[in-house]
Each structure stands twice: as structure tokens, then as C-alpha cells.
Write a structure and sequence with these properties.
By secondary structure, the protein is mainly alpha-helical. Helices cover about 75% and strands about 0% of the residues. The protein has a domain of about 25 residues. Keywords: Membrane, Signal, Transmembrane, Transmembrane helix.
Amino acid sequence: MRAWLLILMMGIANFVFAQHETDRQDHSTLGYLVIGLILIAVVVFTLYNKQKRRFND
């Protein structure tokens, strides 16, 4: 389920932030930073839960 969520988020990011024939200097990279931070938070949360589950077993 989490893998599908990650694939869906990456697809949405690709669709939303795809730039066709536009000058890249006009656009901010803030969107990419936000998506990157969200993905990092999801990975950290997932790894934390796996470690917590392994420790409790």
C-alpha cells in the first residue's frame, strides 16, 4: 500500500510540476523542495515504525 502511495505521489508531482516550453528561471523550486521534504518525512516515518515494531517483538 505504501509503495502505491509513493508511486502515486511521484506521478502527481511529475504531472503538476512538468514544464513544457517555459523558461525555468521564471519558476521557483519551492514546490520541489516541499515534495522532497514530504517524501523524506514519509521514508523516515516508515523506517521508524519498522524499527519500533522490530524492537517491540
